[in-house]
Fold this protein.
Amino acid sequence: MSGNEDEQTDRVRNQGKADGLFRACMDEIRSSHTTGQALRTATLAAGLLSDRCCYAELLGQFYVATAALEKRIDELINNSDDKKPLLVDKVKKLGYSFTSGYENDLQALLGQEWKSIIKSWTTEPAKQYVQRLEAANDVECVAASFILHGPLVIGGGAMLKPRVERAFGESATNVFEDVTGTAKGGRSSRRREFIDLYDSLLENDSDAKDQFATLTNQEDTHPYQEASNHATHSISPHPEIDSDSKQLKMCEALLYS
């Protein structure tokens, strides 16, 4: 990332506690040297908004992953032993659920047959990502939420919604409903609540905290981030998109602006 992008990323990172989980996760993501946490925002902003099908195709990859994650979170909570509190229950209480927003947007973009279209467009990496999420444990779901929910909650959603609305109409912006405007107290409140929640997890267990943060980065122990990158880059090519372009790199900063 450029100097300006580093500064914007650091500004968000530094809102977490000095020894907290949020900073640790952000540092792991930055050290991975992939688009990582910024892939959703960066790629959507880098040319995809000129092509309805191209945008829907990428949106579909993150829809299937997010739907699998949110379903798995509900399963873990519903099947949990009350004597053993789950970390993912705290994440659930943030009140974010993006599955229905994705579904409404995909219907607006593709019409009534959107489900069959997305099924045919789902890439192999995205399918593998879904399989991992379907079997994820408590800690893995919390790490996956950081990757899949975090970009929308802590910055990217507020920047992308008006662009998507200009390109495809208001009916294609449902996924941004809870992360824009005054929803949940406004952007700064949403970001603060998300950061504070992750900093409160494993607060008194430094070893577990380090292990958890690593899950947001290392492919061998928690491949969700890398699978997300592969899912993005496996989408059929469109001439207006260059994943190595200066435009894409500059758009990475949108997530943390």
Remarks:
- The first helix runs from residue 3 to 13.
